[in-house]
Design a protein that fits this description.
- The chain is an alpha/beta fold.
- The chain has 3 domains: 4-196, 3-Layer(aba) Sandwich (Glutaredoxin); 200-322 and 448-516, FAD/NAD(P)-binding domain; 339-444, FAD/NAD(P)-binding domain.
- 30% of the residues lie in helices and 25% in strands.
- It has an 8-stranded mixed β-sheet, with helices on one face.
- Helix 3 runs parallel beside helix 5 (132-145).
Length: 517
């Protein structure tokens, strides 16, 4: 199952095991079970501390295998093959169940061990999903630490019937004790906070006690990270608030145009951003969202949704952008029930089905090309008279036999049966005819909207919601600066956002010198 290189790497990692492990296997005579058996055999051969047993009781999912201490009931289970992006999740699960200490904050680990309740998690993932590993690894770790927590990671591509029955149309999707718990990328601290109901008030109280920052940065994407590095290097107190560190890069599969980095993946780039910021004395406050900016004379205040208020002599807004909605009837009702925004993550869930891609720019055409290799048929709908994507992408798209391209098409409605998408209705803009298109999935790729709704009554925005900035990133409020995709700066690119973040930090430093002088 594993090549010699992976076998060698696995053996090296498993040298860190502190106690014997037992892999409990449930298999049958299908090909998927044969592949899982080969994987489990490779794991057992990589360490003398790993043994394999056959499940005595019928398993709820076959093929699957559980990881536990010798003679113990497994609390971490993989249903299907944890390969692709999930291979790292497998290695970490083996290490953590095997006693290797995790690299997480000690207070957070103690909080997990003290959680009072029985929590049985199930996560549906796909091997191509780059957001899934964070969730799978977090829940596996919690299960390894707390005997009242269990977690089963389920490959949606293998268990298609269950995906359909439980109406899973996006990954990662997490169930807790049989009920939906959440969908999309979640980090360990975020999950723990949702379980520990006393944590939020204690956290708000702690944040309220922080001193006034010289520079308070809102946003942890490329612009916010660059601003933090440049501010901290000036020797001034710097705070950074981020709902999730990395911003949009976390949802980007491949980055090939960041100068000096020929190719990388979004999550790796996001991790590198955070690692670089942590080299400096930056107070990073994660899993918090700003809700209000209150300008002041000596300092500005930023109120957070969790109830806390932070203060900064200067503020840099680097809140980025989010996927643009179609804003048609049925879209919000069927979001995650067939309406989705990430072809790389959710594409495997629509294997053998009919889908539509909305948008004929580079993102839309790339999505259609990727999906064509997985689904039965792709229909690409573009509002304009022609596709806007690069010519090389258009040639590739038009060469695919299972793709239809419809231009001058305005989507008017998402149709469904109450539980899931069954199609969409679009208007032929040339003839004004309304046409129903039956399908099972809709991938929306029509651009971005700035995350500035919370600023509408505070500073100057364009009619598109972009923060109006000058050449130095200054906004309409003295001492408040902005950078990145949330601003009026043209060309929303990672490399431009980082430059803008650095510029805003230097401008904030200059403002501090002049105002304090």
């Amino acid at each position: 199952m594993l090549d010699d290189t992976l076998k060698g790497q696995l053996a090296s990692y498993l040298e860190r095991l502190k106690r014997p492990l037992e892999l409990t296997v449930a298999a049958d005579d299908r090909d998927a079970s044969r592949e899982l058996g080969e994987l489990v055999q490779d794991i057992s051969e990589a360490s003398s501390l790993v043994s394999v047993v056959t499940a005595k009781d019928p398993a709820p999912r076959v093929p699957s295998f559980g990881i536990g201490g010798q003679g113990e009931q497994p609390r971490v289970v993989f249903a299907g093959l944890p390969m692709g992006h999930e291979f790292t999740s497998l290695v970490l699960a083996l290490l953590h169940v095997g006693g290797h200490p995790p690299k997480e904050d000690a207070d957070l680990l103690a909080q997990i061990k003290q959680l009072d309740g029985d929590y049985h998690f199930e996560t549906f993932f796909s091997q191509s999903c780059h957001n899934c590993p964070d969730v799978v690894q977090a829940l596996n770790l919690m299960s390894a630490l707390n005997p009242r927590i269990t977690h089963t990671a389920i490959d949606g591509g293998v268990f298609q019937d269950e995906v359909a029955a439980r109406q899973v149309m996006g990954v990662p999707t997490v169930f807790l004790n049989g009920e939906r718990f959440g969908q999309g990328r979640m980090e360990l601290a975020e999950i723990v906070s949702k379980l520990d109901t006393t944590d939020q008030s204690k956290r708000a109280e702690h944040l309220n006690k922080k001193d006034v920052f010289d520079v308070l940065i809102i946003g942890g994407g490329p612009a916010g990270a660059a601003a933090a590095v440049y501010a901290a290097r000036k020797g001034i107190s710097t705070g950074l608030v981020a709902e999730r560190f990395g911003g949009q890069t976390l949802d980007t599969l491949a980055i090939e145009n960041y100068i000096s980095v020929p190719e990388t993946e979004g999550p790796k780039f996001a991790a590198a951003l955070e690692q670089h910021v942590r080299v400096y004395p930056v107070d990073i406050i994660k899993h918090e969202r700003a809700s209000r900016l209150v300008p002041g004379d000596g300092y500005h205040q930023v109120q957070l949704q969790g109830g806390a208020t932070l203060k900064g002599k200067t503020v840099i807004l680097a809140t980025g952008a989010r996927w643009r909605d179609m804003n048609v009837p049925g879209e919000s009702e069927y979001r995650t029930k067939g309406v989705t925004y990430c072809p790389h993550c959710d594409g495997p869930l629509f294997k053998g089905k009919r889908v539509a891609v909305i948008g004929g720019g580079n993102s839309g055409v790339e999505a259609a090309i990727d999906l064509a290799g997985v689904v039965a048929h792709v229909t690409l709908l573009e509002f304009a008279d022609d596709l806007k994507a690069d010519a090389v992408l258009q040639r590739k798209l038009r060469s695919l036999p299972n793709v239809d391209i419809i231009v001058q098409a305005r989507t008017t409605r998402v149709n469904g049966d109450g539980n899931k998408v069954t199609g969409l209705t679009y208007e032929n803009r040339a003839t004004k005819e309304l046409i129903d298109l039956p399908l099972e999935g809709i991938f929306v790729q029509i651009g971005l909207l700035p995350n500035t709704d919370w600023l509408r009554e505070t500073l100057e925005l364009t009619r598109f919601g972009e923060i109006v900035v000058d050449a130095k990133g200054a906004t309409s409020i003295p001492g408040v600066f902005a950078a990145g995709d949330a601003t009026t700066v043209p060309f929303k690119q990672i490399i431009i956002a980082t430059g803008d973040g650095a510029k805003a930090a230097l401008a904030a430093f200059e403002h501090l010198i002049r105002s304090e002088g």
